[in-house]
Amino acid sequence: LPAEVLLDALNQATGNDEPLDMKYHYWPDKLKMVELPFAPRNEFVKFFLEQFGKPARNSSSQCDCERDPGVSVLQAMTLGILPRIAEKINDPKGLAARVAKEVPDENERIDELFLATLSRLPTDAERTAGVEFVRKSPTVQTGLQGVLWSLVNTREFLLQH
User: Fold this and answer.
1) How many other C-beta atoms can be found within 10 angstroms of the C-beta atom of residue 115?
2) If you average pLDDT over residues 107-112, what whole number do you get?
3) Where do runs of H (alpha helix) occur along the chain?
4) Residues 6 or more apart in contact with residue 10 via CB below 8 angstroms
5) With contact defined as beta carbons under 8 Å apart, do 13 and 147 qualify?
């Protein structure tokens, strides 16, 4: 996925948006990444877009032909260990926390996470593994956060969301 789309998908999958800090240019805070007219002040967003191949906008040419479609180890590390990604997943108002509070059935909890991240229902084996992981976790919310983290770090999320 292009960098902007991937960050929008990550925001949707974790259930929270990134504050863009665009007010100084009179732009609303609730923009999608694909709607950004220029780089926001949010350093995480700038870093993320750069790491996933979005070229810096040039005021004389608005061509994205310089976009780098390559995949790098740094991209995998960004999703896997960047503290801001963990904060998004562990947000008390995020998707995992809401599902833990609002969805009583353990199978439906896993279904909700799969639908939010991969846009499909889990296979029976995936559902069973997810339920088992949540059961072994200290709390339901912690277990769901672990499942959400693993789904966000799948190739399927990066390619098909």
Assistant:
1) 13
2) 98
3) 3-14, 43-51, 73-81, 83-90, 95-102, 106-117, 124-136, 140-152, 155-160
4) 85, 88, 152
5) no
